[in-house]
Amino acid sequence: MQEADTDNFENWEKLVRACEALEGGLNRNSSPHALATLRDAYDRFLFKFPLLFGYWKKYADLEFNISGPESAEIVWPLPRIPPAAFLVANGCLPGI
Questions:
Q1: Has residue 84 been placed in a domain?
Q2: Long-range contacts made by residues 86-91, C-beta under 8 angstroms, separation at least 24?
Q3: Can you give the pTM of this predicted structure?
Q4: Host domain of residue 21
């Protein structure tokens, strides 16, 4: 789906939602294939759109529910996003 227009945010959002709905909603009992599909979709989506704080939180929450706090900490964006960019994206600093 996202291959047709890799910059189309709506297509990426649809992909992520579709992956979240696999197997009726993912949890710690989901198949390894479904979990890998979800993680791949989120990783690629957030690589493309790294400043979407709400999606980083959603991904971390999913990981927490699936695999526990250590897994959630691994996906948290703060170490990967420069602090100024994070603050600008959240309206705390004027745009640079």
A1: yes
A2: 86/51, 86/53, 89/51, 89/53, 90/53
A3: 0.72
A4: 9-89
